[in-house]
Design brief:
By secondary structure, this protein is of the alpha/beta class. Helix content is about 40%, strand content about 25%.
């Protein structure tokens, strides 16, 4: 089975709980995290191995994200 590409919107306490569970379950390609401020998104991305992070949702909706490809 191929992993599911994941975009998380919001990097608060609930998102952290979800990621803790997903890490244990596996099968997820941590692709993009969107949150404000951007520092929170970057920290979350680093903690859980997301490839990309930022404040804007629009880049996370690009077809390349669906494929798991990033610039």
């Amino acid at each position: 089975k191929s992993p599911v590409n994941l975009c998380v919107v919001g990097a608060g306490a609930i998102a952290q709980r979800h990621m803790q569970a997903l890490v244990q379950i596996g099968g997820v390609n941590a692709t993009w995290v969107v949150s404000r401020p951007s520092e929170q998104a970057h920290e979350f991305a680093h903690r859980y191995g997301f490839k990309c992070s930022g404040e804007a949702l629009e880049p996370a909706q690009l077809p390349s994200v669906e494929r798991g490809a990033h610039d």
